[in-house]
Design a protein that fits this description.
Blueprint (H helix, E strand, L loop, with lengths): L3 H21 L10 E7 L5 E7 L9 H10 L1 H12 L8 E6 L2 H14 L12 H8 L8 H6 L1
Parallel strand pairs: 2-3
Antiparallel strand pairs: 1-2
């Protein structure tokens, strides 16, 4: 479980990294810049794991291309982040980027569920309910006395 300080630093980093991607370094990311879905900070505040979600629209490139682009420019991203959070944090954490594929997984699962063919349930007021009562198995006779009492 993260401490309050870790949560505050993670929130600060998430907001400022989004600003860095959109305002300070837009030339690094042709098309749409990656979105930041989650930031987790180590207990000593020295390492931040940043989970990026990349939308591939048009000529934005594939996830692998975006991941390589982000990892190649980690130093520039950290320097731009240091300019933004320099007064609030004593040490800017080392950034480790991971691709978050939860949106792609959700789209895949939505497609799988959409392709399922589920027949509709029979209507409750139909005549098949009476047929079911007649064709239902009779109760087994457990004791010989049950037969005599009927």
């Amino acid at each position: 479980m993260e401490s309050k300080r870790q949560q505050k630093v993670a929130s600060l980093l998430q907001q400022d990294l989004a600003a860095v991607f959109q305002r300070d370094l837009p030339h690094l990311f042709p098309g749409l810049p990656p979105g930041i879905s989650l930031v987790r900070v180590s207990p000593d505040l020295g390492v931040a794991r940043v989970y990026l979600s990349v939308l591939t629209v048009g000529n934005n490139g594939s996830n692998a291309e975006q991941e390589a682009l982000v990892k190649d420019n980690t130093k520039a991203i950290r320097q731009a982040l240091a300019k933004r959070v320099g007064k609030q944090l004593r040490i800017v954490p080392e950034l480790v980027f991971f691709m978050d594929d939860s949106a792609a997984y959700a789209a895949h699962m939505d497609k799988v569920f959409g392709d399922l063919h589920i027949p509709p349930a029979p209507a409750e007021g139909s005549s098949s309910a009476a047929d079911d009562a007649e064709s239902a198995p009779k109760r087994p006779k457990l004791f010989a006395d049950d037969e005599e009492s009927n």
